[in-house]
Every structure is written in C-alpha cells, then in structure tokens.
Amino acid sequence: MNANSDGNRGAFGNPWLQLTIGVICMACVANLQYGWTLFVNPIDEKYHWGRAAIQVAFTLFVLIETWLIPLEGYLVDRFGPRWVVMGGAVLVAIAWVINSGASSLPVLYFAAAVGGIGTGCVYGTCPPALQPQVSAQEPRLPSGPSRP
Predict the structure, then answer these.
(1) How big is the CA angle at 23 (ends 18 and 28), to the nearest 5 degrees?
(2) Residues of the chain below pLDDT 50
(3) Per-domain residue ranges for the chain?
(4) In CA terms, which of 16, 20, 49, 122 is 20 to 30 Å from 142?
(5) How far is residue 18 from each of residues 23, 29, 42, 113, 138, measured CA to CA in Å?
(6) 100 Cβ partners below 8 Å, 6+ apart?
(7) What is the pLDDT of residues 17-29, one digit of tens each?
(8) According to the model, what pLDDT value does residue 140 have?
(9) Cα separation, 10 vs 18, whole angstroms
(10) Half-sphere exposure (CA, 13 Å, Cβ side) for 64?
(11) How far is the C-alpha of 148 from the C-alpha of 135, rounded, in Å?
(12) Which string of DSSP letters, residue by residue, matches 79-137?
C-alpha cells in the first residue's frame, strides 16, 4: 500500500481507494475492541466467571494488539502490507470463531490473544502504509506527527 509495495497496480493503485479500503478493514476489526463491553454481562450471566476475570481477556487483547506493533511493522517490511493485513483479517476471523464457542476462561483468553495479533496487524499497517501516499497528493490534509 505504499509506493514500494505491490499494491500500486491497476485500479487498486489509487491512494484514495486504498485509503477507503484501509478504513473499511479497520472498521471490520474494530468490533473486537469497541463492542467488547456489550458481551461482558451476558458472558458473566451464562458462565458466572466474574466480570473482572472476563475483563482480563480484554486487557490481554489490548496489550497484545499494541505491544506487537513493532513486530508487525517488521512483517510489513518483509512481506508487504497486503499480506500482513490479510493475515490479520484471517486471525480476527479465527478469534471470532473461537470466541463464539469459548466455554472456559483460558479459551476466552486465547481468543483475545489471537484477536489482538490480528487487529494489531490491521491497525498497525493501514494508517502508516497509506498516509504518505494520501498526504503527497493532498498536502493540506492533516496527517499528524507521522507526516514525512
């Protein structure tokens, strides 16, 4: 998705289309993070694990999502953003499946770890890969401290 990647071919070479796809990818994986609170009480009512124990899964998710960004950046440099985002999407899908059948805390925690890795792959790849292209075409757009 950057100037040196294999994403600049055909219709997908348009930075604005890439930006739109990147935002859609980020929205698709955001539900693991932003929808979490909706599931805590129903999980607690069903399994009686306690809200604090259930929230450990969310803590693991956020820690893994954020602290593995340097490793995911290395993967982007090695394999390109397309493969890292696709791999992250697959991991998020696996996390959804595991979460849907989680009947113990260790399984819930494992699903959170898998989802954290996948979400980090998407969140850590899309903005940095797309920002230089879009700001190069439209320099008046604010791009924060990461602007080249």
Answers:
(1) 125
(2) 1-8, 145-148
(3) 30-125
(4) 122
(5) 9, 17, 37, 28, 14
(6) none
(7) 877 888 888 888 8
(8) 58
(9) 12
(10) 23
(11) 9
(12) H-HHHHHHHHHHHHHHHHHHHHH--SHHHHHHHHHHHHHHHHHHHHHHHHHHHHHHHHH
pLDDT of residue 74: 93
**Residue 26 Cα distances to 45, 55, 105, 107, 120, angstroms:** 30, 22, 27, 25, 10
Q: Which pLDDT belongs to residue 1?
A: 44
Tokens 């929808």 correspond to what residue?
35
| Rounded Cα–Cα distance for residues 16 and 13 (Å) | 9
For residue 31, give Cα distances in angstroms to 23, 35, 52, 84, 135.
13, 5, 20, 19, 28
pTM score of the predicted model: 0.80
Dig out the tokens for 133 from the structure: 């292209």
